[in-house]
Amino acid sequence: MRRLHRVLASWPLTVKVPLLVAALMIAVAVGISNTVLQRLSDTQEEHLAQLTGAYLDGLSTAVQPFVIRGDVWESFDVLDRARQRYAGVRAKYTIVALPDETVLAASDPLRFPSASRLPGDVIERVREAQSLVLDEDGASAWVYRALREGNAFVGSIIAEIDISDLIALRHKALMALIGVNALLTVLFAAAGYFMVRRMLAPAGVLTAHLDHALDGPMKRIADRDLPPPDTEFGRLFRRFNQVADALNERQALGARLAQKQKAAVIGKLASGLAHEVNNPLGGLFNAVAMVRDHGDDPKIRADATRLLERGLTGIRNLVRTALLTYKGPAQTHEIARSDLDDLRFLIQTEVARRQIHLAWNVVLPDRLTVDGQAAQQAALNLLLNACAASPVGGTVEFAASADQHALSIVVRDQGSGLPEPFIALLRGDEPAAMPAETGLGLWTVARLMRQSGGRAEVAASGAGTMIRLILPLERALDAVA
Predict the structure, then answer these.
(1) What is the per-residue pLDDT across 366-401, written as a single tens digit (0 to 9) for each?
(2) Where are the alpha helices (H) located in 295-336, listed in sequence order?
(3) Domain 332-481 is classified in which CATH homologous superfamily?
(4) Taking the model in full, what pTM does it have?
């Protein structure tokens, strides 16, 4: 039963509704046909009773005197004249019987000879019948009339009537009902199919647009396909267009914000790289000049070599840290103290420009099994944001530590507090509305936390913002250095 129900539930409405209409029509047709046939049967029986009653009335009046006298020939004569007079009554045979159940006269004397006893089957029917007994299977009816003179029973009349014409009429009526009802059922089912298909055509349009939304932006329903606004589908289609416009606008806004964010981060990185590379280049050229002009002096040569080494090391660390923004996923997920210390070189320009005091505290093992690229890039974005949010001469705190389960990175600034939409974004919630200024790197930080399975904790007030990033470790920690 459940399997049948699932199969029926999977059928489209354009099939189920016509089938339901057809089933209802069949049920109604059966009920109407039974009523009509029963009414026809009752009417036929009533008319037959009236016709045979008139036949027995006339026959009993004519034959009763002769039954009393036991006159066989006059009784035969009455039966012969009655067959001609009551031609509408198709009697198969008529018997005039005496009180002792012997035949006085019969319309079929060969089957029922005079002075013979009535057959047993006829007697049984006579005893059961008071007036009319129908045998539809045999297409016959039996009628019985007792003949009385005063209170004395003097005889009886028994007749079998052919009712095959009535049965044939019922059969024709049944066939006509079946044909008409079948035709009406097919017509109504077909009408139901086309009506439901027409009614559900707007639903097909809506389904097609929803399927299209799975592969790209939502497509508005064309104005030519909109039903009248005062209909249910008309209102639904217009609501769908409003939702499509809102979602497409939101996606476009998100794309613009992402592009703006990317441009801002790249601009900051490019500015920092240019500044941090240009600063040591002057010293490097001076060191080269010193070696070229005074290379024979060991002391000058050693000082120049140290200057070259420090400058090149700084440039190497700066470039390696900048590559975190562009390179793909790391082959091994590891991070060490030096990987986070490299971030100080990238933010030196911003720190110097705003005269920021940088409080740096990194306590990590030599190697930590965590998504190092996500940790470095997220930390870099938070540091750039903290430097931009803190006042000139303010303090930015950076701390990193680990336990047996996770790496913890904390960035604290002295700004005016992070707006609530950005807090919701970092926590992984969907912000209600984003300000026009998207900030520096917060979208990137939220994305990296989702990708690495980490989370962000935010505490913001008028005195500053504290953001803690927690990234899960991939296996147990080494001993903390």
Answers:
(1) 788 888 878 888 888 888 888 888 898 999 999 999
(2) 298-322
(3) Histidine kinase-like ATPase, C-terminal domain (3.30.565.10)
(4) 0.42
